[in-house]
Amino acid sequence: MERAILKIKDLTKCYPGGFTLQIPSLEFEEGLIYALVGPNGAGKTTLLNLINLLERPDKGEIFFREQSSSRDDPTGRLYILWGQTPKRQQLWGQTPPGPKIKVGSDPKELHRKMTLVMENPLLFKTTVFKNIEYGLKVRSVNKKTRQKRVKEMLEAVELGGFEKRPALSLSRGETQRVAIARALVLKPEVLLLDEPFTNIDKRSLEVTEKLIKEINRKEHLTIIFTTHDFRQAYRLSGQVISLLEGKVVKGSLENLFRGEIEENLEGLKYVKLSPKVSVAVVTKKGGEVHISIPPEDIILSPTQLQSSARNSFLGRIKKIDIEDQTVRVSVDIGVEIISLITKESFDELGLTISSSIFITFKSTSVMVI
Amino acid sequence: MDYIYEGLKNALKIIISLDPEMLGIVFVSLKVSTTSIVLATLVGVPLGFYIAIKDFWGKGGIVLLLNTLMALPTVIIGLLVYSFISRGGPLGSLGFLYTPWAMIIGQFILALPIVSNLSLSATQGVDKRVEKTALTLGADNLQTALTILREGRFAIFAAIIAGFGRVFSEVGISMMLGGNIKWLTRNITTAIAFETGKGEFSLGLSLGIILLTVAFSINILFSYLQKKGA
Fold this sequence. Notes:
By secondary structure, chain A is an alpha+beta fold. In chain A, about 20% of the residues lie in helices and about 35% in strands.
């Protein structure tokens, strides 16, 4: 990756409870929006905390690249956020010019290049203005500039006129917007958002989504956010990274289920998702596993298909999400399964909420993790 | 009953007429207690904060010691300080005994465990996310520490007020180390004990009313700050 702003290498973080985050390699390109997706306990927050220097890894390295004057110059200044002092040659697979390399840089300086907005963010016990102003004040930005930038940010999050409001009197959604404004006012190079859309009202959700897209487009800001809502992840980001039990897994983790592998008399393996739903799988694994069914591999049909696919279920349509060129259809077959189809197919099938539909997918499509 | 009624009437007269002796006594009390609490705040708040945020060997023992010292009798402090600053003591040459400084030292020792222990609790009561938020917004260690203190400011003020209330109303230290010298070290509590002892019930009562008023005001402020900080 030519313009990686963050690079993770052999990262390990262990917790006493047995959870381990293990990422052999991961890169984030500058100016893109990334969604870290996964169920609770997948390691999303841990990864953000490690990137933001709030936690120290047990092993491995995280690199931050400060853009040099030439945008495509891969030898721009490098900072190692965490990790042991490596040999210079290891940094980017070549020997970068000596003076530009800074190892174990000042954490304060690095903190100031990235800002994290926590899940359930905390606002200080003061006014909205002073909350947003905080980061600028600790950077000794002059008062006039502070006032101008805070006002601009409040307008951007559609909270103009909220300056003097006590921060603790705000709603959950307003609090989230102030926290995002407080982060964005600092003009960071990387914005980290931990579950920014959890438990907020529809209005705040729309404002936040719009703001993220706009800031990314206008400021070329790299944004990494966590969510467990795949629809949202795809709506906002072209780069979806799936995390499961502390590991990055290939492909989307939509239609993720947990169950035990069982074997019938014919030797076919399946995973029971509910008393009436058993999904045929192809795997050598046994015991408790996660399975994921890629939505694009699920075929919808009004009648049962005669095909080689081992999995076919009758269900009822529960939700329809129309996107740019595709439609996500949630079908209740005893568990909820999402199918991704084209708009043309959607129109041809004439799908409506509550209508009956067959879903079909091959056992080889099912990812066993 | 007449005796109490007459005493109360005369006490109010003394207060209203702003009797110079009474004012002098009140001034000594305020001067000594304010100085000792300022010193105890300067040492106790950072100490309590440090103990709260740092994990180190023996931390539990120090917290236990501070808790025990909160209940230290004033006469014991008086005795301890006396042994150091009396003519034959190691610091006798400084000539502190029977001066306001001796009272300040004693009251400082009395207030320090109260201020530091309550500051420790106040810091521990601050939301853990404050530190993380400050750091992620680019604050350095000192700025982060000040932010934590600012978030716990109401509880810390309450700690200081509790310390002030304690030193303002103590008698043992003032009597043993100040010596109750008129216009110099005679404060409200020593004067009450002295004047009542020699039969000047009205002056004692007037000072008692002032002491109670101050204590009552402190408690109101204390409750207000505790509620605001909650």
